[in-house]
Amino acid sequence: DSIVTANVGRGYGPTYPPPIYQAFGAVDGIGQIRATKLLLWLYLLAAGLGIALLLRSAGYQVANGVEVGLLLWSAPAALLGVSTGQSSGFWLAFLAAGFVLWRREKKLLAGVAFSLLCIKPTLAAPVVLALVLASQWRVIAGFVLGGSLLLAFSISIDGVEIWRGYVDMMLRNPDLTQQLWSSLERHFSFRSLVSVPFRETSLAVPVGALGSVAAVMLAIWFRQKLTPTLASAPHSFPALSLLLGACAFATPHLLDYDLVLYFPLMIWASYRIAEKRAHNMGLGIAALSAFYVVPIAYPISARIDFSVGSLVALLLLLWCASEVSQSYSKGDAIA
Fold this sequence. Notes:
Layout: H1 18-24, H2 32-58, H3 62-73, H4 76-83, H5 88-103, H6 107-115, H7 121-133, H8 137-158, H9 161-172, H10 176-180, H11 190-195, H12 204-225, H13 227-232, H14 237-250, H15 263-274, H16 281-293, H17 298-304, H18 308-330
Helix pairs in contact: 2-3, 2-4, 2-5, 2-15, 3-15, 5-6, 6-8, 7-14, 12-14, 14-15, 14-18, 15-16, 16-18
């Protein structure tokens, strides 16, 4: 089917532009059941590959890397992506490839790898914001180049009409905001943290908007704290991971199966704890453990009208920010 059929009541979901459907068209011919099984296995394997690449990029020792890698591969955030038929494994692999290339100072190629996340714009936006805050302009140039090539390739397959239909559907969708902001208790963002108690009232939207603004300000504050770190180590894995986590916290749409944006930060936090180098070990273990399991606790959030997951994410971000700051001031962190 073409997205043009949106004009007669059918079309693609608002968070996914045409390239993802064009890519999945490659398995159309093997039947729905076989295609689903194949894609689920690919999601799982891609998630494993992404975690392995991030561990390598972070400089993990092999022994601890295997243990942490298996823990993350079996984390609820990773398994939810597979069990719900999401493409989270692919997004994690693209993100990890970008990190590896960036750490090797192949910035244009890193940007191209990151640009593959444009297939799901709600994930691409926080990555771009993190790169801007980190002043990674060559990486951003590569992102623009990769996004342009992705668009050109998409048009070369089905023409420009498929994009016109998609834009038309977006403009004509009166419930777009509600679709993007549904299931607030499953979101991990400052917006959901402050707006869930008001979701049945007219205050939900303005309060949520203020929450998103506050999260952006938090990300900017992190950037200011990281200025000495980035000046001495411009390819700092924990610094970019922290900025990415903060920018993910600022996005209005980040469900539990999209927590792959937090995986670099989880890896660095795991490193600090596993190597017994954390300055506040107890709080770090509590924050990381809670973040690990909290994606499956969303029924509690729904029952009490409070985003428990978002609060845990904020605690993890603040702990990691403190650790990054202290580690670089004492010269004991991985670069």
